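STRUCTURE:
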């Protein structure tokens, strides 16, 4: 057993042994080998145990939770067991590419002193339904930043990163499984955000940790998010209470960790814009999913009205209405705005 590996892959799994087996196979193909894999099985019956029986690698540590802790607490349980200097939070179904750690270790050596080293990612849609809902194509879709060249590296200080993040200039998705975060930073910030809903925890995780001691970002895909229909976001869409908690819970968790910054008043306004923009996109995603499943939108529409009732979100409600009910008109207005913009 490695006494102190450079990286710990911290994983939570629940009754998906085939996903787990394939994920472990993929991680073990890393060309940089100084790592461990810490698995927290949220199934008290240990359904993941058989999936691991074919591996004899002593870098794998597996523990069965006595009860289902829920996704976030299970992730944080694996974090508590980790020994690495850096941490990768990773699901059991989002593969990382074999050169991920090698690439990030190279950045670490070239640009020492940062708290996070991160790459870009892709989305892999397995089905026509998942592609429609994601407004993507079946197969691989890039989520890289269009404001950077391929393989371009940018260094963001702790001061500038949250401004860049809230502006949306780093692409449509920052995936935590293609980032290494210094363990002490992650522990100080409370690990994976635990604020009553799993939605938007990836955004909170990224902005707070990358704003602690800066981030080195390379605009190259180091892994992908697999959209297969069994993802957490798909299987929990009908949990209206968790949807309604998003704006206030996200904002409170981030503010609690960033409110002592001198630029917090400016950042808070930028965060509100980010929440509005992201909530519109997520709400459209839910609406599309429920419509395709031929599920009534009544309860969800009530939740939208309640959620967007916060003062800073009221103007975003109209954007949601236009995009959901009059998409052609919205696109027309967007094109007009782009033409007349200076």
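SEQUENCE:
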């Amino acid at each position: 057993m490695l006494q102190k590996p450079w990286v710990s892959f911290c994983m939570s799994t629940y009754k998906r042994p085939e996903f787990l087996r394939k994920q472990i196979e993929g991680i073990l193909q890393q060309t940089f080998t100084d790592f461990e894999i810490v698995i927290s099985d949220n199934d008290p019956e240990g359904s993941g145990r058989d999936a691991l029986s074919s591996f004899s690698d002593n870098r794998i540590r597996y523990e069965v939770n006595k009860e289902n802790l829920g996704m976030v607490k299970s992730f944080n349980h694996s974090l508590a067991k980790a020994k690495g200097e850096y941490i990768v939070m990773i699901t059991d179904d989002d593969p990382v590419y074999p050169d991920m750690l090698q690439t990030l270790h190279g950045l670490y050596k070239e640009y020492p002193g940062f708290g996070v080293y991160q790459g870009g990612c892709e989305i892999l849609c397995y089905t026509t339904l998942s592609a429609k809902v994601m407004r993507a194509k079946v197969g691989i879709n890039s989520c890289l930043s269009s404001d950077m060249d391929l393989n371009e590296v940018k260094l963001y200080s702790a001061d500038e990163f949250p401004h860049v993040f809230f502006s949306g200039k780093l692409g449509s998705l920052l995936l935590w499984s293609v980032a290494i975060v210094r363990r002490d930073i992650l522990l100080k910030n409370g690990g994976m955000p635990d604020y009553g809903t799993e939605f938007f925890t990836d955004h909170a995780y990224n902005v707070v940790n990358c704003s602690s001691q800066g981030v080195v970002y390379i605009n190259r895909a180091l892994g992908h998010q697999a959209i297969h229909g069994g993802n957490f976001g798909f299987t929990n869409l009908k949990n209206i209470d968790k949807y309604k908690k998003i704006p206030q819970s996200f904002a409170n968790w981030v503010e609690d960790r960033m409110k002592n910054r001198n630029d917090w008043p400016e950042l808070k306004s930028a965060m509100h814009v980010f929440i509005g923009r992201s909530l519109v996109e997520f709400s459209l995603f839910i609406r599309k999913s429920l419509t395709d499943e031929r599920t009534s939108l009544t309860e969800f529409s009530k939740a939208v009205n309640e959620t967007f009732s916060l003062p800073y979100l009221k103007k975003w409600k109209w954007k949601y209405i236009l995009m959901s009910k009059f998409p052609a008109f919205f696109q027309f207005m967007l094109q007009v705005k782009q033409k007349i913009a200076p």
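REMARK: The chain has a mean pLDDT of 91.
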